[in-house]
Batch of 2 targets.
Target 1
Amino acid sequence: MPIDKMIHLPDLSFIRLCNEEYGINRGLYNTIDLFFYERGFERIVDRRRNILYFLEHIQKNTDFKNNRAKFGSGGLKIKIDEYLVELEKNRVAI
């Protein structure tokens, strides 16, 4: 399913997608959602799109055990900040 369709799923379906595809449970999803909101992604569509891009990013760059991402203490914040720095670099490069 294309990202433009996924971002418009009902909340429960979107959270299930995050769990099934990326091993992110509801609690972790809520934390990620809050992190993005606090960093200026106020529109849900923008936030969901970036959550999916972020999850793709960590899936490629993070060790997974039993199809679950392991962040460790403070690791999630670090990964989100790294993603946002990379996102900003790509914007400047365009």
Target 2
Amino acid sequence: MDTGFDLDARLVKDTASLGDWPLSRVLLMRNRLFPWLILVPRRAGAVEIHRLSPDDQGLLSREASAAARVLERLCQPDKINTGALGNVVSQLHIHVVARRRDDPAWPGPVWGCGLHTDYGLDELSALAHRLCNALHAEIPLIPEPS
């Protein structure tokens, strides 16, 4: 399915991988100020949602909705922001961000706001574990090949 798929180097640097859903690689943005998932369809050369097959468009929508439900349940945000910008990283990716009225960028966008605080290693590991369990309950994560 993902022959020729390579994750953009900037996404690799800025995120931690949580696993794969049927279409998308699920990533956690390494910014503790905003609970933030990124879904990257594992399709070589994918840049725009409307250029995906109709089946993949539907699957991406279901995966983005599942990611939003997970963040809503675990983070209890005031708002979920979902977007596909691609101005800096052209590889198709969907941001799903849990926003709170008391977050440092509210009410503005988190994209390009310049606010960033890394997770501590233990905090990142614990959060990744919680997220993986919740994501898997929504849509089973594909096991990594052994």
